[in-house]
């Protein structure tokens, strides 16, 4: 469980490390899937499409933790799904691009582990934010996101043996989620061979 008095330094270190990685990617690639370290626009879209299985989003409030340059907000708009969209990211350069791309949404530079929001959201999603994290970061984000979600929290994880990526087993993730205040967990793993998505329902 989150104990900020003992883990704040770790979260700050993780934020600093990830911000450096993604700030450089945004500086180099700008408004591109490459700024988010995705292999292609197609794989990014498949992850977004999978998130739609979480529930009926139309008319709901949606928070995207690690929103990057606002691509999920743009995707929902293109699908004709009308939501009250908020995006948080730790990279200010990405937030500026997101605001330009989708001015009707709310984007903010915020780390929910160090500065949690005061409001809750119907649905919360995170796409790709755990790749360069670690177990403590993962558990902190999931626990905080679940506490902020009214209906469900959806997140994806990369499945690889490369030591440079955080890639926990499905069994570990399910066991951790079962220790939180949720009613059920669903796993989707038929959209990409090296990726799976979890839905944790309150």
The termini sit apart by 17 Å
Q: Round the mean pLDDT to the nearest integer and report it.
A: 88
> Helix content range of the residues, please?
25-40%
Number of strands: 7
Walk across the major sheet and give the strand order: 3-2-1-4-5-7-6
Q: Please trace the helix and strand order, writing H or E for each element.
A: HHEHEHEEHEHEE
Low-confidence stretches: none
Largest sheet: 7 strands, mixed
Query: Beta-strand percentage?
Result: 15-25%
Question: What structural category do the secondary elements indicate?
Answer: alpha/beta
Rg value: 16 Å
Please summarize what this structure is:
This protein has 202 residues and is an alpha/beta fold.
Structural account:
By secondary structure, this protein is of the alpha/beta class. It has a seven-stranded mixed β-sheet, with helices on both faces. It is built from six helices and seven strands, in the order ααβαβαββαβαββ. The longest helix has 26 residues, at 4-29. It has helices spanning 4-29, 41-51, 71-78, 92-101, 135-148, 170-178, and strands at 61-65, 84-89, 106-109, 121-126, 149-158, 184-188, 195-201. The radius of gyration is 16 Å and the shape is globular.
Q: What structural keywords apply?
A:
7 strands, globular, 6 helices, seven-stranded mixed beta sheet
How are the SSEs ordered, and which strands pair?
Elements: H1 4-29, H2 41-51, E1 61-65, H3 71-78, E2 84-89, H4 92-101, E3 106-109, E4 121-126, H5 135-148, E5 149-158, H6 170-178, E6 184-188, E7 195-201
Parallel strand pairs: 1-2, 1-4, 2-3, 4-5
Antiparallel strand pairs: 5-7, 6-7
């Amino acid at each position: 469980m989150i104990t900020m008095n003992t883990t704040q330094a770790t979260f700050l270190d993780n934020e600093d490390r990830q911000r450096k990685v993604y700030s450089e990617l945004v500086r180099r690639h700008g408004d591109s899937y490459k700024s988010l370290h995705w292999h292609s626009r197609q794989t990014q879209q498949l992850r977004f499409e999978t998130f739609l299985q979480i529930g009926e989003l139309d008319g709901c409030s949606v928070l995207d933790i690690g929103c990057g340059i606002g691509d999920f907000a743009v995707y929902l708009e293109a699908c004709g799904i009308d939501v009250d969209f908020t995006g948080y990211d730790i990279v200010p350069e990405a937030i500026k691009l997101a605001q330009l791309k989708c001015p009707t949404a709310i984007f903010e530079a915020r780390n929910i582990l160090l500065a949690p929001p005061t409001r809750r959201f119907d649905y919360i999603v995170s796409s790709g934010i755990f790749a360069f994290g670690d177990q403590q970061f993962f558990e902190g984000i999931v626990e905080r996101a679940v506490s902020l979600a009214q209906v469900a929290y959806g997140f994806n994880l990369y499945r690889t043996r490369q030591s440079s990526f955080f890639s926990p087993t499905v069994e570990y993730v399910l066991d951790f989620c079962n220790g939180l205040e949720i009613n059920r967990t669903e796993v989707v793993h038929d959209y990409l061979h090296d990726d799976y998505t979890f839905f944790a329902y309150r």
